[in-house]
Amino acid sequence: MIALRTERLCLDAPRESDIDAVYRACQDADILRWIPLPNPYTVESAEFFVRSYVPHGEASGAFTVWALRIDDAPLLGVVEVRRDRTAGSASVGCWLAADARGNGYMREGLARVVAFALDANGMAFTRLRWEHLDGNSASRRLAESVGFVFDEEPGSTRAFGDARPARIGYLRAPANDVRAAEARVRAADSARATRRTRSAGDGAGRG
Asked: pTM for the full model?
């Protein structure tokens, strides 16, 4: 696989030393609620993910899984791009450990992967697909933050494996390239930093 980088993150393959981090992350109730993973999620589940699932996807060309990490630390989460049956199309999914949330890591990593997936010199997909279960507003906001568009037209929903309705959104090339996707992340991070600075200033002025 091709390793990717952002300002703060290294995106590479999950590895043996990540097994414990995968296991601990997948004990989170929100991850198990919204993502089709084994439940309960055991150490054996994490071992299978790292040792079998990820290498099989890469070897077969069916899907690629990137681990999000800071430098050489254990993974914080993952992003997967899975080739669809429709030519030129792929589906995107992800999860992030609970203790890593609130820092913009997933948005930053996802923007980089999405840009690479749509880049003619990268994975060269022309369309990316995103599904989220009804009620998972955080997933929808994340997808929309990197350019996915959802609508309420017929065909924009489907029954999930356990019969819960899922919403479907799309992101298409060539309008979205590396610079456009990552510019959205920089703008969002700048706005977030400004809000924090203002909040800190307001607090310092009270007494």
From this structure: 0.80
Q: One-letter amino acid identity for 134? A: D
- Domains in the chain: boundaries: 4-201
Percent helix, percent strand, percent coil in the chain, to nearest 5: 40, 25, 35
Q: Which CATH number fits domain 4-201: 3.60.150.10, 3.40.630.30, 3.40.50.300, 3.40.50.720?
A: 3.40.630.30
For the chain, the straight-line distance linking the first and the last C-alpha, in angstroms and rounded, comes to: 55
Read off the pLDDT band of 56 (50, 70, 90): very high
Q: How do residues 152-177 score in pLDDT, each as one tens digit?
A: 654 555 555 565 778 889 998 755 45
Q: Which of 77, 76, 37 is nearest to 53 (CA)?
A: 37
Q: Please state, in angstroms and rounded to a whole number, the distance separating the CA atoms of residues 72 and 18.
A: 11
DSSP run (H or E) holding 21 = helix 19-25
Sequential DSSP letters for 121-158 = TTT--SEEEEEEETT-HHHHHHHHHTT-EE--STTSEE
Tokens standing for residue 163: 């019969």
Which amino acid is located at 97 in the chain? A
How many residues belong to the chain? 207
Q: Which of 20-29, 34-43, 51-60, 167-176 has the lowest average pLDDT?
A: 167-176
